Amino acid sequence: MMRRSPLEYNSSMITIAPLRPDQIADAKSVISAVAQRIFEPDKTADEFSTALDEEHELRDVDDFEQIYAGDRGLFLAVMEDGRLVGTGAIKPLTAEAAELKRLWLLEEYHGQGIGYQVVMRLFEFARRAGYNRVCLQTSLMQVRAIAFYKRIGFVEVPDYHESPYDDDISLEIHLNP
Questions:
Q1: Among candidate residues 106, 99, 105, the one with its CA nearest the CA of residue 74
Q2: Most buried of 4, 121, 147, 160 (most Cβ within 10 A)?
Q3: Checking DSSP bridges between strand 9-10 and strand 14-18, what pairing results, if any?
Q4: End-to-end Cα spacing for the chain
């Protein structure tokens, strides 16, 4: 029997494992596709993706090996039969807090527990890395995501850093030892 890394998750068709450099374009494509439907539904996917590139909104994905690397950060890819369908990441915020970033899943995969599995893998990593809490910021337009975060135990907190957007909400969860 083959042993899996504790950071990997396999269901019948879904695999969750660390992002590889050759998956960057696909990760950005998934993030852009989901975000476009939420934030700019009147734009085409190509127009929205171009705008994200011009504004360098996904620069952290391009540089994921530096930003999310080492023993203090992790960027995960959700795969189905070789196709990237979701992402999720943890990066250092402070010595005791990590920031949850880039949790995106194509809409047809919502409601199947996949996002929950990604978050649980990231929490497991965060605990092992010595973090005692995880923070995140998201847009109030992300109604479904905010409900998900609150369902798994995140609570609203004052903004932990300035955002260029007026409609952001900050949330955090304390990790059990």
A1: 99
A2: 121
A3: antiparallel
A4: 30
Residue whose structure tokens are 């059990």: 176
CB-based contact 104:144 (threshold 8 Å): no
pLDDT at residue 114 greater than cutoff 50: yes
Domains of the chain, CATH where assigned: 9-174 (3.40.630.30)
CA 118 – CA 148 distance, rounded (Å): 13
Give the tens place of pLDDT for each residue, 29-39.
Answer: 999 999 998 88
Work out the number of other CB atoms within 10 angstroms of the CB of residue 23. 20
- Report pTM: 0.88
DSSP string, the chain: -PPPPTT-EE-SSEEEEE--GGGHHHHHHHHHHHHHHHH-TTS-HHHHHHHHHHTTTTHHHHTHHHHS-TTS-EEEEEEETTEEEEEEEEEESSSSEEEEEEEEE-GGGTTSSHHHHHHHHHHHHHHHTT-SEEEEEEETT-HHHHHHHHHTT-EEE--SS--S-TTEEEEEEEPP-
- How far apart are the C-alpha atoms of 68 and 39, rounded to whole Å? 25
What pLDDT digit, counting tens, does each position of 116-166 carry?
A: 999 999 999 999 999 999 999 999 989 999 999 999 999 999 988 776 567
